[in-house]
Write a structure and sequence with these properties.
Layout: E1 10-12, E2 40-41, H1 53-63, E3 77-78, E4 90-96, H2 105-108, H3 111-128, E5 134-145, E6 156-158, H4 161-171, E7 178-183, H5 190-193, H6 198-201, E8 206-210, E9 229-230, H7 231-248, E10 253-259, E11 265-266, E12 277-283, H8 289-301
Parallel strand pairs: 2-3, 4-5, 5-7, 7-8, 8-10, 9-11, 10-12
Antiparallel strand pairs: 1-4, 5-6
Length: 305
């Protein structure tokens, strides 16, 4: 993901309604009839209760911000399971890697200083929007695309358990903090990399991010061009996460997918949404605000997931 020193927080909202600072959700109780204008549906095969569907519907309609195109809220999305974070809370995180001061605030500052800054950012959002509680988080790059091939020739530096455990320990400095583990697969594949962090994804407070920019399907070296994921890859990941949620009786996983170009995610219309996984299309990149807004309009607003 193209990020330098992050002075502010990465703000995450549901893909089906928003990205970055926009959280999304809405719902009704399991036995209630659907309102005529509902845009969501419950998957009948899932026996676990969904969130409060009336509240969910109310919030995603609010987050659509008066859209008149018919794209938002996303139609026919399944209600998430009870305990879902989005859209009931706004997720505010610091991003980075403990071995680098240039990849984000998480690695730029010592833990106490980092938390001091992140807590100020959280208070800012609580003041701006007191109606939406803030969920604090840390977003850690657990596999970093590399300029050197490494032992397996995949151009990837996987962080060891010791480093990931350190991030989990830092997260405990603020109660109820969630952690995202982010994967830049380089010349490896997402199927090959997920097992490396499987034991962490089984934890209720650990969620996932993946970065298409560094998924080099054509064999190019990471950093030389922008990589890509297809809907088939994304569906594999959501299925993988859904299985973990079901097996361990967890609340839904938040799954962050970085995107700032069209080709970073192909066939997005074929992405399968699941009650166990909340997909977040996260728009990021270099540039001035106007450029970022244009990117958002083209690749997030224009291609609802």
């Amino acid at each position: 993901m193209k990020i330098t020193k992050i002075a502010g927080a990465v703000l995450i909202g549901m893909a089906t309604i928003s990205t970055f600072a926009y959280c999304t959700s809405d719902a009704k109780k399991a036995g209630d009839k659907k309102a005529a204008n509902d845009t969501t549906k419950v998957e009948e095969e899932n026996l676990r209760a969904p969130v409060d569907t009336a509240k969910y519907n109310q919030l995603i309609k609010k987050l659509a911000n008066g859209d008149t195109t018919g794209k938002w809220p996303v139609k026919n999305q399944p209600y998430p399971l009870d305990g879902a974070i989005l859209p009931f809370k706004r997720i505010v995180v610091y991003y980075g890697n403990l071995h680098s001061k240039k990849m984000g605030a998480l690695g730029e500052y010592a833990p106490k200083e980092m938390w001091s800054r992140l807590n100020k950012e959280i208070k800012h959002w609580e003041k701006v929007d007191p109606s939406t509680p803030v969920q604090a988080g840390l977003h850690y790059i657990a596999a970093v695309a590399s300029g050197t091939p490494g032992k397996d020739g995949k151009y990837i530096n996987r962080m060891g358990n010791k480093q990931i455990d350190s991030v989990l320990k830092i997260a405990k400095m603020r109660p109820n903090t969630i952690v995202f583990l982010d994967l830049q697969v380089a010349l490896s594949t997402i199927k090959a990399e997920l097992p490396h962090i499987a034991k962490y994804l089984e934890m209720p407070n650990v969620h996932l991010g993946i970065d298409p920019e560094f998924s080099m399907k054509d064999g190019s070296l990471p950093g030389k061009k922008i990589g890509t994921y297809d809907a088939a890859d994304i569906n594999y990941v959501t299925g993988y996460l859904a299985d973990i949620v079901k097996k361990h009786n967890l609340t839904p996983k938040v799954f962050v997918l970085h995107r700032f170009t069209k080709k970073m995610v192909t066939n997005s219309q074929n992405i399968k949404l699941r009650p166990e996984v909340q997909v977040v299309m996260h728009m990021d990149g270099w540039g001035e605000p106007d450029l970022k807004l244009g990117t958002y309009r083209h690749f997030i607003f224009g291609e609802p997931v």
